[in-house]
Design goal:
The protein is mainly alpha-helical and about 325 residues long. About 70% of the residues lie in helices and about 0% in strands. Helix 10 crosses helix 11.
Length: about 325
């Protein structure tokens, strides 16, 4: 009934808000220049994500869990030792990510890799030896991930791998990247309602400019982590587009929400940028926006959106 549907939306939104609160706590805990970290968090909370959070969709829990784990990576990269409360908050977010959707457990691996890049193996050893809390956290998250693997195995064990389609799937998958790029900042409804074209230019060019500044002015480990985050996001988008969408000819096309659980770490890694740089960025992008739009014709986002399946739900 409609009452139960709206009740599910309220409960889901409340859970997501709780995860967002945890992400903010972890992001600001013992953080230098905490205001810049909030700027990165605000950049990560894109309109697409806000829309997904407001509907009944398992991707909402997955993306919110990804935000918590991304914030946890930044928190653990700081020299101050995490407290038992910190490990508890990390466990909640990582568990939500691991059980939300079948891909959830896989996202834990690149997050762990980013942490190693940021702090090194020696610091990882120190974190592991810091009492019982980190060991309990890892155990709980491992059990959550295993339960997801088991559930997928029991429900999708009969799905064959079409080996004869693998080459074609990966050949076609890169063509889906433009759709992902369009959908990441803002897409609504049944993936058929974009916003004004200039806004996409503003967001995209702004993100590229801030990322460029981070690569120029960041320390070596931050540069490597940022590049790794971008590369993993692109590679994951290609892989997910290939399997299962292109391989099985799914009626649903590749969607940005499938890579957002990890891609949200990129704006968080940019959160140290000074406000002055952001203001100069907006002025520069705003002045060049009209000229860029006249020189290059940007396809209407509706042209690259997957056709809405008949009778499909936006929460599919």
């Amino acid at each position: 009934t409609s009452t139960r549907w709206y009740a599910a939306r309220v409960v889901g939104a409340a859970f997501v808000l709780g995860l967002l609160a945890i992400a903010v706590v972890l992001l600001l805990e013992r953080a230098p220049r905490s205001g810049w970290r909030l700027a990165g968090f605000s950049l990560a909370a894109m309109p697409t994500i806000v829309f997904i959070f407001a509907v009944v969709n398992a991707s909402a829990w997955e993306i919110a869990g990804g935000l918590v784990v991304a914030a946890a990576v930044l928190r653990l990269s700081r020299p101050d030792p995490p407290t038992a409360r910190t490990w508890t908050l990390i466990t909640i977010g990582a568990t939500a990510l691991a059980v939300s959707r079948p891909l959830g457990p896989f996202w834990l691996l690149p997050f762990a890799l980013l942490l190693v890049v940021l702090v090194g193996w020696r610091r990882i050893g120190e974190l592991w030896r810091a009492g019982r809390a980190p060991k309990v956290a890892v155990a709980v998250v491992a059990v959550a991930a295993a339960s997801t693997f088991l559930w997928v195995r029991l429900n999708d064990a009969g799905v064959p791998i079409l080996t004869d389609r693998i080459d074609d799937a990966f050949r076609l998958a890169p063509s889906d990247l433009w759709r992902v790029v369009i959908q990441i900042p803002a897409i609504f409804g049944w993936n058929d309602t974009p916003i004004a074209i200039p806004w996409y230019w503003l967001y995209g060019l702004g993100l590229v400019a801030v990322a460029g500044a981070a690569l120029v002015f960041g320390v070596a480990r931050e540069r490597v982590a940022l590049l790794l985050g971008v590369v993993i996001s692109i590679a994951a988008a290609i892989f997910i587009a290939a399997i299962p969408f292109e391989m099985y000819g799914q009626r649903y096309g590749m969607q940005a929400r499938y890579v957002l659980p990890f891609a949200v770490v990129i704006p968080l890694l940019l959160g140290w940028a000074p406000w002055l740089l952001l203001l100069l960025l907006l002025v520069g992008v705003g002045s060049g926006l009209a000229a860029a739009y006249l020189v290059w014709r940007v396809p209407d986002p509706a042209e690259v959106m997957p056709p809405a399946a008949a009778g499909a739900s936006p929460a599919a």
